Amino acid sequence: MRKSAALLITSLSLLISHSLYAAPLRVAADPVPHSEILNYVKKIDPKLDLNIIEMTNGANPNELLASGDVDANYFQHLPYLHEQEKALGKKFVVAAAVHIEPLGIYSHKYKTLADLPQGAKIAIPNNATNLSRGLWLLQDNGLIKLKGERSAESTLVTPKDIIENPKNVKILEIESPQIPRSLDDVDAGIINGNYALEAGLSPAKDALGIEKAKDNPYANLLVTTPVLENDPRIKQLAKDLTSPQVAEFIRTQYHGSVIPVAGSAHD
């Protein structure tokens, strides 16, 4: 009788455990590096049934999340998420901060930033958060000076906030995915890490100037909805993405072009 009861309890436990992951977890992600990292998670945690939906058609992953077409997304940093919450009138939940893709300055024409000529045309992402982020990167590299001090609470800056511009650089605001294809037409371009990788550029090697990882507020996030915040599949994916194994994969795969936030063997 006791043996039968024990078997029944074991069977029920297995059934409950299996039911937690019965439905695939649908995650919208950019192809590089996000989908690549998620595919690695599939290898190390096959029990977590991931359905990775690559965003290659211009769809907004936050709109998909809000409408229930996906369970989570993995492509954005916190300032952009806050901007999207306002635009969509929705609240989302950050499940994990995973990695940083340093913003970099690239050129097909010049070897160093010092070589940029007077009146150089610099392409920069046209969305509010990355525009601000790019302008701070130009200041960090001595090309411009902005009014005010940078802080996590500071208002986003625009080209109107430039107070010193010794080379009289011209800021051209362009859609982020278009900037790698525009490098032949400008003197330099500021490119997000994922788009640089997709274009065959190595941020760690090819960027003439690059964001620092320390105290960087632009970590890429695993994001879900308040309804799914405590879903065991979400919690398991968050645990996997911040594990030492995934951190080591990121370091080995991207050679400093993508930087893990946590889970490093050296933490």
UniProtKB/TrEMBL annotation:
The keyword Iron-sulfur does not apply. InterPro entries: Lipoprotein_NlpA (IPR004872). Keywords: Lipoprotein, Membrane, Palmitate, Signal. Gene3D superfamilies: Periplasmic binding protein-like II (3.40.190.10). It comes from the Bacteria. Residues 1-22 form the signal peptide. It is found in: Membrane. Pfam families: Lipoprotein_9. It is a lipid-anchor. Belongs to the nlpA lipoprotein family. This is Lipoprotein. It comes from Candidatus Pantoea multigeneris.
